[in-house]
Amino acid sequence: DAGVIQSPRHEVTEMGQEVTLRCKPISGHNSLFWYRQTMMRGLELLIYFNNNVPIDDSGMPEDRFSAKMPNASFSTLKIQPSEPRDSAVYFCASSRDGGNTEAFFGQGTRLTVV
Amino acid sequence: GENVEQHPSTLSVQEGDSAVIKCTYSDSASNYFPWYKQELGKRPQLIIDIRSNVGEKKDQRIAVTLNKTAKHFSLHITETQPEDSAVYFCAASRAYKYIFGTGTRLKVLA
């Protein structure tokens, strides 16, 4: 397996634009996480899916953020409209069994909102 | 709420010396404690983990200890090498939720 695959690797966008980040988890993993990493706040859990169902979205900062997982092999994180303070590295991770096993991280998407 | 404190935030050691990073967690129901290493510009990757029914685990130069009563766990790296330089994150997990520490930037000086 190629691991967790994220795209794009880098995204630069203007304030107010819509941004969509994509993730393909490892096949067979039932859990998918979206994290945001910044120097100030470290690794923050944004949302957790189990078997494609959103279980915990309490970390989603605002209504401008939304996430979907239409099937077991694909998830998106959307920011609309984007703001400069959304600039961060966004990681997708997957695991076989929630937080009871290793979470495998994707390469991340470095988002810059200007 | 759930919290994981990690210390120190930065650590510099001479090559060959040992490094110790400590974490304290607040949720007594946490039962899985992974450690991740993140090199500059790369993804976090698991280096070792321990479960709540185990007090210590070792893998070559890396070891982790867990004290459930005190709710703290530590990462020990012996005979450090320049390639150990990275940011290390601890995490405490219960059910689906990993709570990460704020990270320790380890520099191994040659």
Protein described:
The complex is a heterodimer of chains A (114) and B (110). Chain A is an all-beta fold and 114 residues long. Helix content of chain A is 0%, strand content 54%. Chain A is built from no helices and eleven strands. In chain A, strands 2, 4, 5, 6, 9, 10 and 11 form a seven-stranded mixed beta sheet that branches. The radius of gyration of chain A is 13 Å and the shape is globular. The model of chain A has no long low-confidence stretch (mean pLDDT 95). Chain B is an all-beta fold and 110 residues long. In chain B, the strands form two sheets. In chain B, strands 2, 4, 5, 9, 10 and 11 form a six-stranded mixed beta sheet that branches. A five-stranded antiparallel beta sheet of chain B has the order 1-3-8-7-6, with no helix packed on it. In chain B, a hairpin with a 2-residue loop joins strand 9 (86-94) and strand 10 (97-100). Chain B is globular.
Please give the structural blueprint.
The complex is a heterodimer of chains A (114) and B (110).
Chain A: E1 5-7, E2 10-13, E3 19-24, E4 31-38, E5 42-50, E6 53-56, E7 65-71, E8 74-79, E9 88-95, E10 104-105, E11 109-113
Parallel strand pairs in A: 2-11
Antiparallel strand pairs in A: 1-3, 3-8, 4-5, 4-9, 5-6, 7-8, 9-10, 9-11
Chain B: E1 4-7, E2 10-14, E3 19-25, E4 32-38, E5 45-51, E6 56-59, E7 62-67, E8 72-77, E9 86-94, E10 97-100, E11 104-109
Parallel strand pairs in B: 2-11
Antiparallel strand pairs in B: 1-3, 3-8, 4-5, 4-9, 6-7, 7-8, 9-10, 9-11
